[in-house]
Amino acid sequence: MPRKKKTGTVASGTVFPVMKKAAPSPGRTAAREVIGKYGGRKRAVIQVLQDLQERFRWLSVETLEAVALELDVPLAHVYSVATFYKSFSLEPRGRHICTVCMGTACHVRGGTAVLEHFERRLGIPAGQTSPGGEVTLERVNCLGACALAPLAVVDGRYYGQMNESKANEVLKPILAGRDAPPASDKGPVD
Amino acid sequence: MKQYRTHLLVCAGTGCVSSGAFALKDALEKEIAGRGLKDEVLVVTTGCNGFCERGPILIVHPDNIFYQRLTPADVPYLVEEHLLKGRPVPKHMYVPSAGIEPVPRMSDIDFFKHQRLIVLRNRGRIDPEKVEEYIAYDGYEALAKALTAMTPEAVVAEVTASGLRGRGGAGFPTGRKWALCRREKASPKYIICNGDEGDPGAFMDRSVLEADPHAVIEGMVIGAKAIGAAKGFVYIRDEYPLAVARMGIAIGQAKERGLLGENILGSGFDFDLEIVRGAGAFVSGEETALIASIEGQRAFPRQRPPYPAQQGLWGKPTVINNVETWANVASIIRRGAAWFSSLGTETSKGTKIFSLVGKIKNTGLVEVPMGIRLRDIIFGIGGGIPGGREFKAIQIGGPSGGCIPKDLLDLPVDYESLTQAGAMMGSGGMIVMDQDTCMVDIALYFLRFTQEESCGKCAPCRIGTRQMAEILARITAGEGSLEDIKKLETLALTVKQGSLCGLGQTAPNPVLSTLRYFREEYLAHISEKRCPARVCKNLITFFIEPEKCVGCLLCLKNCPANAISGERKKVHVIDQAACIKCGACFNVCPAKIQAVAKYTGEEGRALLDERPAPAEP
Ligand SMILES: Cc1cc2nc3c(=O)[nH]c(=O)nc-3n(C[C@H](O)[C@H](O)[C@H](O)COP(=O)(O)O)c2cc1C
Ligand code: FES
């Protein structure tokens, strides 16, 4: 893989120093691995970022740089893609992830009140991570499980017909700093 | 293959999985083994049945008995009664409404009875992870026919003659699109399946991908042969991991069987299919934006023409169709254009899948012939509005669509009628709204949605949607003026005409349609500072009716703002200055007490006047 670029520039103009070939960072090794899976194709940048985010839970500057170097595309390009699509997080995400659906079906069945309740209980607005890194609260526009509206997902498990008291139950262990309780069944995302 | 006397079909769609389908399956398998029925009864997982709200669902085949909302604890009794003694168990069956006898057979349930399945024909009967089950129900027969007995021109002609139109949005005739692309000289050509399904409230594409991925693959291979493409992409939303997984399995199995890849069915035709995951941007469902996304770029739409059929992926001729469109193709080829076009109306042929959600009794996915009346969907299949509430409107077409009022319930569902009524077929999301849904709030909801999802490339969409959302927010806050309605209408026109892509061009529809049919609700917010549906926080007051309150402390304990005072067995009182109007008290007050009420307008303000004015938030 050719390595021409020694620095990368993001939109804001900040220049990130980039490591020389010395000991490859974990990000670099992971990037190489994932890129290999996509045959090194430049167009796979979105898929590569997705896989890396799955592994690291978020995309650090080092990860973006590693992808740029390994794919041999400008860092600005990687950065523009990473900031355009909503599923990428350029900040560390919490140990627990709560997602509240704000799709139309959930909205007419009280999704907004559910989100506000999560915000109050967790003490953070949607889109943020609690200061200790314990939990991130996210919103999503429809998860395609609208029959269960209003819907919330906690650590990959879907909870339908959400309401205040159900939310309190589900959030209890998180607020107590422990793992989420086993749901009635495993959700489609694990 | 081993013969079983009974198959237990456990629905493993997203809805049922969330409500415990796998636990049910495990319990069934254990019980069946324990009872020595292992050689007679087989437990199978299937794709989504569409009646998601009733999950987990179990269908006993061949008896055609439908069980709903089962838990592992129900299993021992159910197995003993139904499978050993042959007595179906009424208490787990569907009951249309209180006091009516349970309906044992799936085919007699209103929700299923009026449906006509083409795209969803395999739902609930095959395991989507087993290609042999798809094949057992005529799967890949159409492909064999298209590859060995038809010319590409004949395939295009058949699809054209069927009258199939795109199921992803605009309803462009599919055959015409294919013919356009086929005519192009440039090569290579590509085909794409649009599974981005961004319309919030629509989940038919998810269901098709999860329940019958081979139907999409078969359609795509036929399409590829017809236009002369050797490579295809299935673009699936990132929020649908199960769909991605099932499609991945299906592609692998199709390749193993020579139904995909090189020299398909020995015909010498090569076609390869790749999955690309979306990354959470609504605009990436727009065809030119989606193409940019597959190329690894940001999903910015571009000006059309040239259309993708002329210059698409990497500038090459590309056919892009929606999941449901592709899933129709094999049936058309297998059964013929005449059969397909015998269903539906003059201009809209075949069936369409709708997701019936919101304030409706039977929530789920329904496939019905085009031209069916809205009333038949909402009341015939959907069972009407729950909780004795009154139907107000049905929102069709998502952020590009509009709200259709009660007066138009007899409207036939086809592309033209819906557009004329100010809505749009879109992908087929149908969100039912009742008297407790505020139409101005809904308009605001959609405008906030489009504003957030606007990619920002063109100014009318980027700025116009923001201004419209601001005005709507003002009106819902009770700070609007009559002038604002005029401004909304002017802005709507500008955004519609000036925007680059369909997102902006249709973004004003939710506002225009609510202004058209529910203008009086806008006027109530503006002139009387009243929200008739009692939704808009600034315009409502929560109040505990002293004569109804039994002093149970429930609301008091649940109030996050500590705004409720009272003691056990004493009437509770809301401190209006401290109330944040979250509605928790309203929701927790037991249904048979209903002591918490919402007031709006004059009445609401009168309640406030007795107390200190609420602090500004
Ligand atoms: C903002 C926007 C979002 C869209 N989202 C989708 C989508 O999620 N799925 C889809 O199939 N079509 C979507 N479309 C329509 C596509 O541009 C395109 O018309 C469609 O995929 C063509 O397939 P069809 O002819 O089979 O409907 C969208 C269009 C716009 C303007
Ligand atoms: S609207 Fe919430 S899952 Fe679809």
CATH topology grouping of the largest domain in chain B: Rossmann fold
- Major protein interface: A-B, 50 and 67 residues
CATH superfamily of the largest domain in chain B: NADH-ubiquinone oxidoreductase 51kDa subunit
CATH topology of the largest domain in chain A: Glutaredoxin
Share in β-strands of chain B = 5-15%
Count of DSSP E strands of chain B? 17
- Beta content of chain A: 5-15%
CATH superfamily of the largest domain in chain A: Glutaredoxin
Question: Can you list the ligands bound to this structure?
Answer: flavin mononucleotide, FE2/S2 (inorganic) cluster
Q: Major β-sheet of chain B, in short?
A: 5 strands, mixed
Question: What is the terminal-to-terminal distance of chain B?
Answer: 69 Å
How many strands in all of chain A?
6
Task: Specify Rg of chain A, calculated over alpha carbons.
Answer: 19 Å
Number of helices of chain B: 25
How does this model look, in words?
The complex is a heterodimer of chains A (190) and B (617). In chain A, 39% of the residues lie in helices and 13% in strands. Chain A contains seven helices and six strands. Chain B is of the alpha/beta class and 617 residues long. Chain B folds into five domains: 6-113, Glutaredoxin (3-Layer(aba) Sandwich); 136-341, 3-Layer(aba) Sandwich (Rossmann fold), CATH 3.40.50; 351-434, Ubiquitin-like (UB roll) (Roll); 439-527, Up-down Bundle (de novo design (two linked rop proteins)), CATH 1.20.1440.230; 539-609, Alpha-Beta Plaits, CATH 3.30.70.20. Chain B has 25 helices and 17 strands. The relative contact order of chain B is 0.08. The structure holds flavin mononucleotide and FE2/S2 (inorganic) cluster (FES). Residues 101, 103-106, 142-146, 149, 151 of chain A line the site of FE2/S2 (inorganic) cluster (FES). FE2/S2 (inorganic) cluster (FES) binds at residues 101, 103-106, 142-146, 149, 151 of chain A.
